[in-house]
Every structure is written in structure tokens, then in C-alpha cells.
Design a protein that fits this description.
With 52 residues, the chain is mainly α. The protein has one helix and no strands. The chain has one helix at 3-25. The chain is elongated.
Length: 52
Amino acid sequence: MTISNISQMLANVTQYISEAAMRIFGPTDDAYPTIGIQPFTGEPYDKRTDDN
């Protein structure tokens, strides 16, 4: 291995790690609406009133 190969490999590893860190800690690119917490509007299951 020559010094230029080692240098290129080190540059590739550094780029790979920095891109991963930017993806993790960068702003989100989700398209989810900001709707907040939704209240439960159904009826809870009660085994005592089950018709079986």
C-alpha cells in the first residue's frame, strides 16, 4: 500500500462517518404532519361484557 492509497482510504472513511453523523444529527426530512397527540375515542375492551 502506498501513502496515497492510505490517504484516500482515510478520506473515504472520514467522509462516510461524517455523512452518517450529518444524517443522524441534521434536521429531519420527514413529511409527517404535526398533529400532536390524538385522544382515544374508542371503547376499551372489557372481557366481562364479551358476548362469547
